[in-house]
Design goal:
about 170 residues, little secondary structure, 4-stranded antiparallel sheet, about 5% helix, globular
Length: about 170
């Protein structure tokens, strides 16, 4: 996520306007675990430069989020400032980690930063599941999308799965 102003515990650095280290993707906290290749955070089928900024948001910078995945704000990732940080937890306390969502592949029409806002929206709008792999004739269909679970396995799931609090509340 890119907090404005940036903070050291953001899970991904992408704010080119903020200057080092926040403008340097390779300095992001997850790079020490997955490498410094930005492609790891992008779906090959996602044109990340086409991500829109949702009208009426206060996101800074007003430019596209260059990655395909967004983090469950209740996930066991160390952060201080987030939309619902009071519900974050420790990894060991996640019940049924094979059913709990860590990341979702985001919908490019609602991607504004690195944080997923599960419906019903805790903010003013939802960041929803991307359906780029399950579209009919290239049109958004509210179809299935990819989800990474706390135990690190990946599944192709229906939107109803990601909208169910049993799957995103640790």
């Amino acid at each position: 996520m890119a907090t404005a102003p940036p903070v050291p515990w953001d899970w991904i650095y992408w704010t080119y306007w903020a200057g080092p280290p926040y403008s340097d993707f390779s300095k992001g906290p997850l790079c020490q675990y997955v490498g410094k290749n930005e492609a790891v955070f992008r779906c090959p089928s996602d044109d990340v430069m086409s991500h829109s900024i949702v009208p009426g948001t206060t996101e800074v910078p007003q430019g596209p989020f260059r990655f395909s995945y967004i983090l469950n704000p209740m996930a066991p990732v160390e952060r201080y400032a987030c939309c619902i940080s009071g519900q974050q937890c420790r990894l060991a306390s996640v019940r049924r980690p094979s059913e709990k969502i860590l990341l979702i592949e985001g919908n490019e029409l609602t991607m504004v930063d690195g944080v997923w806002v599960p419906p019903p929206a805790f903010g003013s709008f939802p960041n929803d599941l991307g359906d780029r792999h399950d579209r009919v004739n290239g049109q958004h269909s509210l179809g299935r999308g990819n989800v990474v679970f706390v135990d690190t396995h990946v599944e192709f799931v229906e939107p109803s799965y990601v909208h169910d609090p049993l799957h995103y509340v640790p």
